[in-house]
Amino acid sequence: MTDQFELNMDEYLPLREVVFKTLRKAILTGELKPGERLMEIHLAKKIGVSRTPIREAIHKLEQEGLVTMMPRRGAIVAEISEKGLRDVLEVRRALDTFCAELACERISEEEKEALRAACIDFEEAVKTGDATVIAKADVAFHDIIIGATGNERMVMMINNLAEQMYRYRFEYIKDVSNRERLIKEHRVLMDAILKENVIGARDAAREHIDNQEKSILMQIHLED
Amino acid sequence: MTDQFELNMDEYLPLREVVFKTLRKAILTGELKPGERLMEIHLAKKIGVSRTPIREAIHKLEQEGLVTMMPRRGAIVAEISEKGLRDVLEVRRALDTFCAELACERISEEEKEALRAACIDFEEAVKTGDATVIAKADVAFHDIIIGATGNERMVMMINNLAEQMYRYRFEYIKDVSNRERLIKEHRVLMDAILKENVIGARDAAREHIDNQEKSILMQIHLED
DNA sequence: GATGGTAGAATTGTATACAAAGTACAAAAT
DNA sequence: ATTTTGTACTTTGTATACAATTCTACCATC
Hints:
2 copies of one chain form a homodimer.
Chain A: H1 15-28, E1 37-38, H2 40-47, H3 51-64, E2 67-70, E3 74-77, H4 82-106, H5 109-128, H6 131-148, H7 152-164, H8 166-174, H9 179-194, H10 198-222
Antiparallel strand pairs in A: 1-3, 2-3
The first copy, chain A, binds a DNA duplex through residues 12, 14-16, 39-41, 49-53, 55, 71-74.
């Protein structure tokens, strides 16, 4: 009587989506480096499809801000300037602090429980020392807060902004010296939200982004 | 000695862009109504191009949130729910208040002058009574404030959010009873920014969006 | 040596062809 | 009368062909 026949009838994914995900991953992991050209025929041959889905995927990546297109001369992996990063972080600061406020007002009991669990998961992840695991746990923690706003548009927009910074964020997490601070910041943010302390949550969220910005900008400057 | 040779070397626009703009305008003006199907062959014949640029334009519209696609069954003009509108407005509230704050801190003398001019232009536009003219002057006024932040990403994101609501916003402006209030709100917001009164600017921006939300939601409910 | 022009290759933009899936509707079955 | 099913017709997804533009390299000219 249950939906036991809910077997995945919807396993179809257009090739353009497959290609899109493939290329996005390649960009976010650094396999495709900023400035590198994306040539349709080459990618088509490499991935084993025709040019059409490649083009559609590249256009989607352009909309996401991960590639830059110039008419009649193709696409390159987007180069993000320091100014661009600052801009992204500035928007995130506005949205994340707002999310923290909203979360205080709207978070449900289930979400509170999930938040506690995610906070502990994050601390466990730090213990493993694996940056990939830590990054995932970090994303999960923040997703709960953002999701607690109940605002799907907000979720989409913040996810997109986060994507822009994925590479730098990952480097930030790899830096062991940041990890204890991250744990502390998560705790402060969580406690404020659990107590529905709006001002405390907002301040904690701002502090969290500020520190992220400092580290990322420092790291960028080191790269020269 | 000026840039008098800046002649439009870049008059080339890919067909996909032309089609995109055409369709977007049709959606925003209500010529294509929410729920209406966008069929590639029909549009191709109507506009006089092949399916390829049509497809690319539709995909772009999907990314902008103006159309909804279902794999293998095509695209429809996006239907925006009341919840969706509330969500958009909520994000705008966060961003617009933040922009107002930033504008106080960063606005240049030239931008202050432009803001004064735009405010007067808006009042003049209201006198004409033409909703299209008013809407344009309104957009110009807000564009100066957003632009004063110097954050290009912010500009892009707010523009996209504004686009989602264009139809409703337009109805709002058409309602004569709102116009005097709009003038007053613009004045209050401008004065706060010119005086670099951060708190006043933020409050004025919030009030501005709150009133917009009230009117738009009321209008939606009337439509039933 | 620098400049400019030209042929050819490479690449993107657009159109079209073909395959696969979805839709609509009428005839048949219950 | 309602549901099922078969079939013709649309429509989308992908591949490929062709056109237009840009890039590259080389040669001629100054």
